[in-house]
Design brief:
With 123 residues, this protein is an alpha+beta fold. It is built from one helix and five strands.
Length: 123
């Protein structure tokens, strides 16, 4: 067989493999960025507080058949006045009944931007 034929066979195997791995890496980076936005980038460093759910809405997004829900919250940080903030979070389908208007839930407040609040539902 000519050397060019062997190179062509090698490229026809290696090139799709490299492209597939590249696409997978790009998708995983995007998903990580999306999930970080959903959960709050500074959740582990956030200031703990309590919040009351004022309103909920369906965002139209699901992750593994679990809905991403929008929340209007009344956040009550310690030693600071209460304020309203919006947040989105993926809620397990079996736990939806626990996240209704009037419920009090733990949250974490982004220390750099207090309007960014993440539900700390797995605390």
């Amino acid at each position: 067989m000519p050397a060019q034929f062997n190179t062509l066979i090698t490229l026809s195997f290696v090139l799709p493999l490299v492209v597939g791995i590249g696409i997978t890496v790009i998708v995983l980076v995007w998903v990580r960025k999306f999930m970080r936005t959903m959960t709050g980038a500074n959740l582990k460093d956030g200031t703990p507080a309590q919040a009351t759910i004022l309103r909920i809405w369906d965002t139209g997004t699901t992750i593994n058949d679990n809905p991403v829900v929008g929340f209007l919250l009344e956040v009550r940080p310690q030693n600071l006045p209460a304020y309203q903030a919006e947040s989105k979070s993926m809620i397990p389908r079996l736990s939806i009944s626990q996240f209704q208007p009037g419920a009090t839930i733990p949250v974490k407040i982004d220390p750099q931007n207090q309007t960014r609040v993440a539900l700390d539902i797995f605390a």
